[in-house]
Design goal:
The protein has about 450 residues and is of the alpha/beta class. About 35% of the residues lie in helices and about 20% in strands. The protein is built from 16 helices and 19 strands. It has helices at about 15-30, 55-75, 90-95, 95-100, 115-125, 140, 150-155, 175-180, 185-200, 225-235, 255-265, 280-285, 290-305, 325-335, 365-385, 450-460; strands at about 5-10, 35, 45-50, 80-85, 105-110, 130, 155-160, 165, 185, 205-210, 240-245, 270, 310-315, 340-345, 395-400, 405-410, 415-420, 430-440, 440-445. The longest helix has 24 residues, at about 365-385. The radius of gyration is 23 Å and the shape is globular. The relative contact order is 0.08. It binds S-adenosylmethionine and iron/sulfur cluster (SF4). Iron/sulfur cluster binds near residues 168, 170, 173 and 210. Iron/sulfur cluster binds near residues 170, 173, 211 and 249.
Amino acid sequence: MSKPRKVHIKSFGCQMNVYDSHRMADTLAPAGFSETANTEDADLVILNTCHIREKAAEKVYSEIGRIRVLKDAAAAQGRPMMIAVAGCMAQAEGKEIIRRAASVDLVVGSQNYHRLPDMIARAERGAKLVDTEFPVEDKFAALSAPRRAAIRQRGISSFVTVQEGCDKFCTFCVVPYTRGAEVSRPVKQIVAEVERLVNAGVREVTLIGQNVNAYHGQSEDGAPATLGKLLRRLSAVPGIIRLRYTTSHPRDMDHDLIRAHGELEALMPYVHLPVQSGSDRMLAAMNRRHTRDDYLAVIDRLRAARSDLAFSSDFIVGFPGETEEDFQDTLALVDEVGFAGAYSFMYSARPGTPAAEMGDQVAPESKAERLQRLQAAITRHQRAFNAAFAGRDLDVLLEKPGKLPGQLVGRSPYLQAVQVMAPHSLIGQIAPVTVTEVGSNSLFGALTDETRVPQLAAAGA
Ligand code: SAM
Ligand code: SF4
C-alpha cells in the first residue's frame, strides 16, 4: 500500500494542459497521491506549463519563486515538498529550468508524464531528474484511467485529447517543437475513454488536439479514420448529449467533417477556426498555407452544411512586417465573418522559430494599439451575436451552481454561459431556457418549460 500524499497541480495555457493535468492526477492516484487545491498542503506541486508566448514562460518562473518559499517553510517543519515542472516549457527548456530554479526537483516533458510515479520515487532518493525524450511507448496506453469519483468531481463537461503535435510549422509557433509530430489516438482507445466518462455522468465531450481536424487514427476495423468518422462513432455512445472539437486548422476542414455538422445532432454548432490574419501577405509569411479566400470558402461550406453555425477564431497582430494595410485586411475579415468570439494576441517572438529571426519586427506600441482596435471589433461582433438571442429559446446544458443561491450556470449550443434559476437536480441535463437578458459575458434566462426537461434528458440518456 502506497503512503498517502497530496499533489497540487497548476495548469497554464490551453485545454490540452487541463486534460494532461487530469491525467497526471489519475496516474498518481495509484501511487497514493490525492489532489489538493492548496499549494501549502502539498507534498508534490506540479506546474503544467505553457511556452506559446514569452509571458506564459515568465509567469512560470515567478510561480516557482512563490512555491520555493512554501517549500522552504515545509522543509523547516521536517516535511519535504517536491516541485515538478511539466508541459511545453519543460519540453522546450529541459535542464535549463533546474539551472535557473534550483528548487525544482523534476522536469517532465509533455510526452513523458506517464512516467511520473517512477520519476517521483527516484527523486525522493535525492536525484534531480529531467525527462524530455519523445518516448517510443504509447503514453495514453500507459496512463491510469480516471477514477469515477475524480470524473464526477471534474463536472459534466470533459476534454478528451484525440490528437497531439503538429506538422504544420507556422513560422511563429513553438508547438511542433514542444509537442512533436502529429500523432492520433486509435478510435477504440478514445471510445473506451468516452464511455467511461459518460458512465460516470459526463454529458458533453470536447475532443481536443493542437490540430484536431488533422486527426487520422485507426478505426475499430483497422481502416484509417478522419475526425468526421470519429465524431459519428462517438455520437453513438449511449448517454452522450453534446460533442465539440477544438482546435482546427482551415486546411484540414475536409468534406466528411463539414458534412458531419449537417448530420449529427450531438455535434454543437460552434466551430473554433483560427485564421491568425486577414492579409494574404501575412498568411504566406506565417506559412499558414491558406489564403484569406480559402478561409472564407471553408466558412461558406460549413454554413451551407448547417446555417446556424457560429465561429470563433485566433488572431495575431504585429507579426513581423505587418503594415497598417495588412491589419486593415484583418479588421475587414472580422467584419466579413462576424465572429461570435475570438482570441487575439500580440505577436511574441519565440526562440528557435523562423519568425523570431525575421527583420521588420513591429514596434511594441503599434502591436498594443492594433490589439486594442482588433479587440474592440471582436467585442462589437460578440455583443451583436449575443444580443440576437434576447427573447429566444435555447437548449442549455446545466453544468454547476451559479453565483446566486438557487442559480445554475450552463452552456448554450454556441458555448455562451447562461445563468438560470433552476433546481440543483437539473445539473447534467438539457433545459430549454428563454433568454431574458443579455449581459456582457453571459446570458440570463428562465426555464421555459420544466416539464420538457426530463424527456430531453431521457432522450439523451
Ligand atoms: N493549432 C492552432 C492553429 O493552427 O491555429 C493553434 C494552436 S496555438 C496553441 C493557439 C494560438 O496561439 C494560435 O492560434 C495563435 O493565435 C497563438 N500563438 C501561437 N504562437 C504565437 C506567438 N508566437 N505569438 C503570439 N501568439 C501566438
Ligand atoms: Fe502552431 Fe497551429 Fe501552426 Fe501547428 S498549425 S504550427 S499548432 S499555429
